[in-house]
Structures are given as C-alpha cells and as structure tokens.
TrEMBL record:
Protein name: DUF641 domain-containing protein
Coiled coil segments of this chain: none
Signal peptide from the UniProt entry: none
Ranges of residues in domain DUF641: 77-200
Superkingdom of this protein's organism: Eukaryota
Domain GIL1/IRKI C-terminal stretches: 389-445
Gene Ontology biological process terms, A to Z: negative gravitropism; response to red or far red light
Length: 448
C-alpha cells in the first residue's frame, strides 16, 4: 500500500473549501436558505410591511384632507362667480326695463309705463336678495346652472334694450321725416310768397328820392377817388397841375392851390354824365320807350349791383355796360395822358379793340367809378317819376336852392374886399338832378 503524501492532503482540503463557498453562494442567489434563516427573514419583512402600512395610512389621510379643502375652495369660487353673473344679469335687466320705461313716456303709454315700472321694482328686489345672500354667506347650491341662466338672462336683456333703441330711433326718424316735410312745405310757401312779392315789386317800384340821393352820394365819392388818383399820376409824371387846370377852366381864381383839383372833377363829371338823360346812356336809338323798359332798368340795377365791374365785362364783353366803359375811357383818358402815365398806349389799344382792361389800380378805380355811374343811371330810369340832370352856367349868382358850394371859404370875404362883392359860379363841379318834384343840388365852385 502506498503512503499518502502531505501535498495531496493539502490540495484536497483546498478543493473542499472552494466547493463549500460555491454552494453557499448558490443558495444566496437562488433564495434557498436554511430553515432558521428563512424564518428570520420573513419576520423582518413583516415588521417592515407593518411600518410601511402605518406611513401609507397617515399620508392618505393628509391627501384626503387637502382634497376636501381644494374642493371647498373651488365650490366657493364657483358660487361667487355665479353670484356675480346673476348680479350683472340683474343690472342688465334693470337697464332694459328703464329703457322700456323711457320709451313708454314718449309717446305717452300708461300701461307700458306701469309694466316697465313693475319690472324695475322686481329687479331691484332681486338685487336686494343677492346682497343679503352675500352678507349671510348663502351661496347657490347649483352654481353651474345659475351661470348658464344668468348668461341667458343678460343676453335677453341686451336684446330687449337694442330692440327698444331700434324702436326709439324709428320714432325719431319718423319725427325727422315729418319735420322735413313741414320745412319743405314752408320753403315752398316762402318761395311762392317771394314770387308774389317780386311781381309786386315789378309793378310797383319801391325806390324813391331818398334812395337816389343816397346812391348819388356813393357815386360822387367814387368819382373823387378816381380824380385824386389821376392828379397824383399827373404829379408823378411831371405835369403842371395848375396849367392843366387852366386848360380845362381858364381864368378861374382858386382860393387855395389844392382847389385846382375841382377843375379835373368837373372834366370827369362832364365826360361821364354825358348822355345821362338818354335811356341807353348814349346817342344810340332805343326801340323800347321809357315806360316799357322801367322794369328792365330795375333788373339791371339789381343784377349788376352784386357783381364786380371786371366780372361783368369778362362775362358780357358786348353788353351795353361794357361798351359804356370802353367808350368813356377812350373819351376821358387822352392818348398824351396815357403815354405820360405808363410810357405806352397798350391800355388804349386793348380797350379800343374790345379786349379786357388791364389789372392796374388806375383801371380798377376807373371801372368802379363807371359802374357807380351806370347803376345811378339805371336807378334814375327805374323810378316812377322822371329824373333829369342839370348844371348852371358860369357867372350865375349863387342860390342855395339849386346849388351847393364845394369850397365854403368863398363865403368869407378876403381882407380889403368890398362887401358888395359876392362870389359867382366859376363852373359846375358835380351836376344836379331833378327827381319828380324833388331837387338834388348841384355842386359848384365859386370865385370872386
């Protein structure tokens, strides 16, 4: 028999240990333990489950309490929203009822007023109940339904308000239509009345002596404005004003040097009023008599008075007034005078061929004067009484009945003169007029 070597015994012991450790590890992995170990593990697991159950119950109780609080707050918020919605719906109902109350007042409807008043009172009571519910914390048990009903009520109230406003606007439209028809009728009545009055004016001329005198005053004022401009142009052009006045009215003693302008005023009036006694203001023959053309003269006066002279000339270049202006300008403004004023004869050439007057201050002043004189002529021939023109001769004694002096200094006797030396008429400055039995004095310049 062979003997056992120590090395072999040690190697067998190592193998046995490794096998035991391997078995222990396999039991741990597979859960296969010994009976005592298994009991100990189960007891520990039961104790752990008991502890987990206690925590879970406690946590569930806390969650339940939180859910209750959230639900309570949600219900309270929803109830408050329902209360506000009902409040706004009630206010809209009050507005609709008040609009209905206003509508029933015009036109007056007693039944409608009573009905609207009852609705207003009812809605106010509802507001009072809502107030008490809020103060007592009495919220609606069914807020969802209340929200829907409040929205429906508010929409109905708005619709009712719009319907009432529409009816009111329809009534106002009818009233405006009635007013418009009434105004149309009044306008037609006024128009018919004006036509009747116009016919009466054509039959009965309301113009009298006072109207003629007033317009003559404006005409003389425009003549003197033109004369003043003409004298200024003469001075600027280097004319000797006194020599020019001497050629118009020779051997006249002027009390003042400035009185020489009255000679130019005499010259302008003589040219401009020439032919005033004729219906056409010219030597042209007229087919209509004075009686038949009286209404025509009044129409001309009314039409031209509101227009500017240049507008009338531009719109009617071949009218009698246009021919009157051109003819009087060519007579009044001598070619030498125009050449000295402007250095050429362009204005004269334009006027002589029938073109428009240039837009100068001199021409504008002349046209204004010509328009005034033409209108005075139309006014004279539109009167029921006869109007005629007159002037006095040189050397006549002064008469306050027929004359008016343009220079009152003539009535003051100069120092050293004889008392019996009285002023005499040197020339007529502005002619006089006879209007029926009335007399308009002529203006004269007196000289001793």
């Amino acid at each position: 028999m062979e003997t056992v070597k120590p090395l072999d015994v040690a190697s067998r012991k190592g193998k046995l240990r490794r096998a035991f450790v391997k078995v222990i590890s396999i039991k741990k992995l597979t859960g296969v333990l010994s009976k005592g170990e298994e009991v100990e593990r189960v007891e520990k697991s039961q104790e752990k489950v008991k502890l987990d159950d206690k925590d879970l119950v406690k946590h569930a109780a806390n969650l339940s309490e939180s859910f209750d609080k959230l639900e309570e707050e949600y219900e309270k918020t929803l109830s408050m929203e329902a209360l506000l919605a009902k409040l706004f719906a009630t206010v809209s109902s009050i507005k609709a009822s008040y609009a209905q109350l206003q509508y029933a007042q015009s036109p007056y409807d007693p039944a409608g007023i009573q009905n609207a008043d009852s609705l207003v009172v009812s809605e106010l009571k509802t507001l009072s109940k809502l107030k008490q519910s809020f103060l007592n914390n009495q919220f609606d048990p069914n807020p969802d339904r209340t929200l829907v009903l409040a929205e429906v009520q508010e929409l109905r109230s708005l619709l009712k308000t719009y319907e009432i406003m529409g009816k009111k606007m329809e009534c106002q439209l009818k009233v405006k239509d009635s007013e418009m028809m009434f105004l149309k009728e009044k306008f037609q009545e006024s128009k018919n009345h004006n036509n009747v009055m116009e016919k009466r004016l054509n039959r009965i001329n309301p113009l009298d002596h006072n109207h003629f005198v007033t317009y003559l005053h404006h005409t003389v004022k425009s003549i003197r404005g033109f004369v003043k401009m003409m004298v200024e142009q003469m001075k600027v052009s280097g004319w000797d004003v006194h020599v020019a006045a001497e050629t118009i009215q020779p051997r006249v003693f002027y009390y003042k040097q400035d009185h020489a302008c009255f000679a130019f005023e005499h010259f302008v009036c003589k040219i401009m009023f020439e032919g005033f006694h004729l219906p056409c203001f010219t030597s042209e023959s007229s087919s209509s008599s004075r009686t038949q053309s009286k209404e025509t003269f009044l129409e001309r006066f009314t039409e031209l008075r509101s227009l500017k002279a240049r507008e009338c000339l531009a719109s009617r270049p071949e009218s009698r007034f246009s021919r009157f202006c051109r003819g009087k300008y060519l007579q009044l403004v001598h070619p030498k005078m125009e050449r000295s004023f402007s250095g050429h004869l362009h204005v004269r050439n334009q006027v002589s061929v029938g073109e428009e007057f240039p837009e100068t201050s001199f021409c504008a002043t002349f046209l204004e004067m010509a328009k005034r004189i033409w209108l005075l002529h139309c006014l004279a021939f539109s009167l029921d009484v006869k109007a005629s023109i007159f002037q006095v001769s040189k050397g006549c004694r002064f008469s306050e009945v027929y004359m008016k002096s343009v220079a009152e200094e003539m009535f003051v006797s100069p120092p050293g003169s004889l008392s019996e030396s009285e002023p005499r008429v040197a020339f007529t400055v502005v002619p006089g007029f006879r209007v029926g039995n009335a007399l308009v004095q002529c203006e004269v310049y007196l000289s001793r």
